[in-house]
Amino acid sequence: MNNSKNVLNYMFGKGAISNLASILDQKESKNDYVIYYIDEYFKGKTLVDKLPIKDDDRLVFTQTKDEPKTTYIDELKEQLIDANKCEPKAIVAIGGGATLDIGKAIANLLTNPGKAEDYQGWDLVKNPAIYKIGIPTLSGTGAEGSRTCVMTNAKSGLKLGMNSDFTIYNQLILDPDLTKTVPKDQYFYTGMDTYIHCIESLNGTYRNAIGDAYANQAISLCRDVFLSDDMMSDENREKLMVASYLGGCAIANSFVGVIHPFSAGLSVVLGTHHCIGNCITMNAMEEFYPDEYKEFMDMAEKQGVVIPHGIASNLDNETYQKLYNATVIHEKPLSNALGEDFKNILTFEKVVEVFKRM
Ligand code: NAD
Ligand code: ZN
User: Fold this and answer.
1) Residue 259 pLDDT > 90, yes or no?
2) d(Cα 154, Cα 290) in Å, to the nearest integer?
3) Which of 14, 243, 252, 326 lies in the 20 to 30 Å Cα band around 156?
4) How much is the CA Rg of the chain, to the nearest whole Å?
5) Crossing angle of the two packed helices 259-270 and 331-338, in degrees rounded to 10
6) 3-state class of 347 per DSSP?
7) Alpha helices in the chain (DSSP H)
8) What is the pLDDT of residue 254?
């Protein structure tokens, strides 16, 4: 039985980021310097000037063109070793799911020897991580609440995080002002990640009453946001930030289903980013999730967001084989959705047909 852990402290509300200085001041530690990982979008923006960054701290702008690779995490760790900054008082990560995951991974690697790839899996992290604070600037992945940090190992093709209680943030600052500048399509694609996580978990067989309660509430908030006239109003950005956090907690208590494995296939083989990949996969999901498919399409139409079509409709056989392998490797979620003998349903021909429909 799961012995679930949640984020210990969180602060929620407009302008909450102004409390970062006092949170850091209250934290006692041997050293006083702090490592900041901030999404490169904020380079040169006023947000950075308002942060309590001191001379001795280190500020790194994270790249988000590609989703985090294990080699990129290793590079960031090496930079800290070279600069003799391996025992910071805190790591502060400010950004979307990618940057939040980078903060988590580095916090684990500073107290555990070896490389990022050594910890891809379940409960491989042995020593408690550096104290870390997560500050999301984009809502939907639930990375702020979850116990993993997704990384791609380009050599092995494995897209898997460090699933561990040590990966969970010690402190969150949830400030809906920070998501004002997100481009509209990105806001929709990432926001839908929480909707999709939650419909997958509620349609699965490995259920748990607490996971269900989080998921139902997150879906209800997503409906408020994405069926309204302005998904990015002040009130809706607040609601989506809450939905994202609850979705992250839901998934710590359950599993995803058919959509995430197909989306992971797109991501590993074609380099498609996670959240847009889920939305593209939804194009082909009517037979698995008929009601949610319809609701998803209504939401996209209501918000005037176009879901790309046809990225996997005309590929060669070798690529379809890779897509098939990268999809059916996700046994836990697929058996959660379709049963232990899911491979009888998801034959090679069937999987190709689904990709062609996207
Ligand atoms: P992201 O972090 O990849 O960022 C997407 C884009 O939005 C980037 O261009 C970024 O610069 C921009 N952006 C972020 N905040 C902005 C702001 N306030 N204003 C303007 N632009 C902004 O996006 P994401 O969709 O949040 O995260 C995707 C990542 O999350 C993937 O790497 C995925 O694997 C990971 N993920 C992690 C978990 C988890 O539980 N750890 C769950 C799902 C997904
Ligand atoms: Zn997801």
Assistant:
1) yes
2) 35
3) 252
4) 20
5) 150
6) coil
7) 20-26, 46-49, 70-82, 97-109, 184-202, 209-226, 234-252, 259-270, 274-282, 290-303, 317-328, 331-338, 342-345, 348-357
8) 84
CA 353 remoteness from chain centre: 28
**Do strands 162-163 and 121-122 pair parallel, antiparallel, or not at all (unpaired)?**
parallel
The label of the residue with tokens 């058996």 reads 335
Q: Look up residue 49 and give its DSSP letter.
A: H
pLDDT of residue 104: 98
Q: Taking the alpha carbons of 17, 13, 200, 166 in that order, is the dihedral positive or negative?
A: positive
Burial of 159 (0-12, 13-18, 19+ CB in 10 A): buried
For residue 212, the 8-state DSSP code is H
- Stated as kind and residue range, the H or E segment containing 315 is none
Task: Look up residue 81 and give its two tokens.
Answer: 């070793």
Give 112's pLDDT tier (boundaries 50, 70, 90): very high
Pocket test for ligand 1, best of 38, 41, 48 (most atoms within 8 A of CB): 41
How far is CA 80 from each of CA 118, 184, 238, rounded to the nearest angstrom? Answer: 19, 35, 35
**Atom 20 of ligand 1, nearest CA residue:** 182
Give the contacts of 321 (CB within 8 A, at least 6 positions apart).
348
Q: What is the largest CA-CA distance in the chain?
A: 60
Q: What amino acid is encoded at 221 in this protein?
A: L
3-state secondary structure of 93: strand
The per-residue pLDDT for range 58-68, each reduced to its tens digit, is 999 999 999 99
Measured from CB, residues less than 6 Å from any atom of ligand 1 are 39, 41, 64, 67-68, 95-99, 101, 137-138, 141-143, 146, 148-150, 161, 178-179, 181-182, 186, 190, 193, 274-275
| Distance (Å) of CA 65 to CA 62, 69, 88 | 9, 11, 27
Model confidence pTM above 0.85: yes
